[in-house]
């Protein structure tokens, strides 16, 4: 079993580093690296530990992609959107940025939603089926 787990771990490690390497660095590069690396590593790490300790079946490792891929996709979408807002200096882009700033400043629910989403604090995983 340990050999199979080591092979599984080796298969995941390049995927984690590939995500870091392909995550756009603008405008939130450090956040992207933190989200991609630390959360991916934590997600995989506790699963590997549980399997090695015999507390859960190896099938738990199959949930990694299901849980983390949507998070990476959302992160990419948010990073691209932020980059589009920050990197544009056209009159239209500046107007859009100003309008969004006003909305965020005057709409507490929107401000909270953006803060939760962009900080990564809104990431949650479904509860395992205990039936």
Q: Quick gist of this model?
A:
The chain contains 5 helices and no strands. By secondary structure, it is mostly helical.
What is the topology?
Layout: H1 2-22, H2 29-52, H3 63-87, H4 91-106, H5 108-119
Helix pairs in contact: 1-2, 2-3, 4-5
Shape: elongated
Helicity range:
over 70%
- Our count of domains comes out at 2
Number of continuous helical runs: 5
Structural class: mainly alpha
Radius of gyration: 19 Å
**Which regions have little confidence, pLDDT < 50, spanning 5+ residues?**
1-13, 15-27
- How far apart the termini lie comes to 27 Å
User: SSE string, helix = H, strand = E?
Assistant: HHHHH
Let me know the average pLDDT: 76
**Number of beta-strand segments:** 0
- In percent terms, what proportion of residues is strand? under 5%
Molecular structure report:
The protein is mostly helical and 131 residues long. The protein has 2 domains: 2-87, no CATH class; 89-122, no CATH class. The protein is built from 5 helices and no strands. The protein has helices at residues 2-22, 29-52, 63-87, 91-106, 108-119. α1 (2-22) runs antiparallel to α2 (29-52), α2 (29-52) packs antiparallel against α3 (63-87) and α4 (91-106) crosses α5 (108-119). The radius of gyration is 19 Å and the shape is elongated.
